[in-house]
Amino acid sequence: MKDVLIYDTTLRDGCQAEDISFTLEDKLRIAEKLAEIGVDYIEGGFPGSNPRDEEFFRAVRKLKLKHVKIAAFGMTRKPSAKPSQDLSLKTLLDAETPVVTLVGKAWDLHVREDLRISKKANLEIIADSIAYMKERVDEVIFDAEHFFDGYRSNPEHAVECLKAAEEGGADWIVLCDTNGGRIPGEIRAAISALKGAISTPLGIHCHNDGELAVANTLTAVEMGVRQVQGTINGFGERCGNLNLCSAIADLQLKMGKRCIEPEQLKKLREVSHFLYELANLSPYKHQPYVGDSAFAHKGGMHVAGILKNRETYEHIDPELVGNRQRVLVSDLAGRSNVVYKAREYGIDLRSDDHAAQKILARIKDLESQGFEFEAAEASFELLIQEALGRKKKNFRLLGFRVIDEKRKEGEPPISEATIMVEVDGVVEHAAAMGNGPVNALDTALRRALTKFYPSLKEMELLDYKVRVLSSGEGTGAAVRVLIESGDKKERWGTVGVSQNVIEASWQAVVDSIDYKLYKDSKQVRA
Questions:
Q1: Among 14, 44, 214, 236, which has the minimal tally of Cβ within 10 Å of its Cβ?
Q2: Can you give the three-state secondary structure of 174-204, one letter per residue?
Q3: DSSP readout, 454-483?
Q4: Distance of CA 196 to the CA centre of its chain
Q5: Distances (CA, A) of 264 to 39, 230, 267, 318, 466
Q6: At what angle do helices 24-36 and 51-59 cross, to 10 degrees?
Q7: Does the pLDDT of residue 333 top 60, yes or no?
Q8: Do 46 and 163 fall within a single domain?
Q9: Which pLDDT value is given to residue 143?
Q10: Are residues 493 and 357 both part of a single domain?
Q11: Rounded to the nearest 5°, which phi and psi values hold at 282?
């Protein structure tokens, strides 16, 4: 039996976040992913709010989701209507879900200012709405909206709202910190007051406006709450909801509360990134547990520690949540960083090796010029090969020219690049147009080299970033260019630095091509 049940509201509360918009197909794919990691409830949406959510509830019935209940979300009846006459309740029944979640007011401010009814009338609305649905649906959950704010303002009425839900037959009563403004001590005090007053199982639903959704949720679980509501990656209105990626990991690994199986926990990072991808958002690198930087080490002392024992600087084994340990290289690096990274590339480089010291000195020199290798690991691997005398010179540049021309006002400029290279004594000349000077140069270079290296046809430039390194120098400032390239198998990053943006781009482009050819040669040798 599970200690804590997970109620996911990504498809409803999560969709209320700015910049989030899931299609029907997205929502169905997300439901399947959520079922894979073993959540207990999936709140599919608010069927009365839009046609897409109504269609979701029809389509989700066709999916073979194991061990998960689909919930439809809606409000208690309007003050002017009986339950049997309320359109919102009828829409919930039309969704034909085994679970219905009703949200009702638990803060007297909302009763007075929003509903503009008496507190007694509010209690009647809660009780008869739940009773009406309980007669027609297997499971009814009551979300006590603004419960903690309500308890702070008028404890007696807030608790009476919960008692009304209990009298109506609610299977769960969920305590909501809807504005996300309460702190753990307030959560603890409010839940303590419910002991002996409420016998219905309790849940918790926290927003993150005070950056305390996880802390407040864990506090509630410590107090005996057994249902946790939240969203993947903390997607949600304003500052977001409880981040289930953090909460599930904390509950399972820190508090020993069983909520999903260990093998499902290993899919946590995968599901997190899947949601970012469908939302068309870049994953948050520094997100606890599942972010790229969650187990990334940069300081030399830290790296030296984890080489001896991972626990010295990691609070859990990254693999438990599907993540991995990473070591970064920078001007803060020590020899241990270099040794670790070399080991990742299959190179046995002892920490006392002269080559390690040489590489470290080169890194510190380049980073003082503005180079950065954290997002340019391909450039770093080439640097190691060069220090070991293994880097191959694939071509020699004989010259290039890039022209940007704007012929008419209101029309985009035209970029053209011409280049001349030499490979094994053979000179090749090529030209290319592009949507910008770097794109034109990259295309011309690969066009010139493809005759000698056919595999470059499958390579493409995927991302391009420029950062000005020194403020105050205006257009004469040095810039750092980061390029992400890829082929059919993988992606890699390279870097270049110069006061000339074309030269910085050239350095990164050349490293990108050299890395592709180096990678291909390794595969041939293997």
A1: 214
A2: EEEECCCCCCHHHHHHHHHHHCCCCCCCEEE
A3: GGGGG-EEEEEEEEE-STTSGGGS-EEEEE
A4: 40
A5: 10, 17, 5, 14, 39
A6: 50
A7: no
A8: yes
A9: 98
A10: no
A11: -75, 135
| 142 and 76 in a common domain | yes
Residues 103-155: tens digit of each pLDDT: 999 999 999 999 999 999 999 999 999 999 999 999 999 999 999 999 999 99
**Closest Cα to residue 9, out of 242, 173, 180?**
242
SS3 431: strand
- Please tell me the distance from the alpha carbon of residue 478 to that of residue 386, in angstroms, as a whole number: 25
- Domain end among 452, 470, 492: 452
Q: Which residues contact 302 (CB under 8 A, 6 or more apart)?
A: 312, 313
- How many domains does the structure of the chain reveal? 4
According to DSSP, the residues that pair with 468 across neighbouring strands are: 479
Map residue 384 onto helix, strand or coil.
helix
Taking each helix axis from N to C terminus, what angle separates 437-449 and 501-525, rounded to the nearest 10 degrees? 30
Tell me, yes or no, whether 434 lies in a domain: yes
User: How far is residue 51 CA from its own chain's centroid?
Assistant: 28
Res 323: pLDDT: 93
284 within some domain: no
**446 within some domain:** yes
- Which of the 8 DSSP states describes residue 233? G
Domain extent at residue 262: 5-279
Is 290 among the domain residues? no
Radius of gyration of the chain (CA): 29
CA 349 to chain centre: 35
Does this model's pTM top 0.85? no
Confidence of residue 525 (pLDDT cuts 50, 70, 90): low
Facing residues of 326 across strands? 296
Q: In the structure encoding, which two tokens stand for residue 524, read together?
A: 């041939």
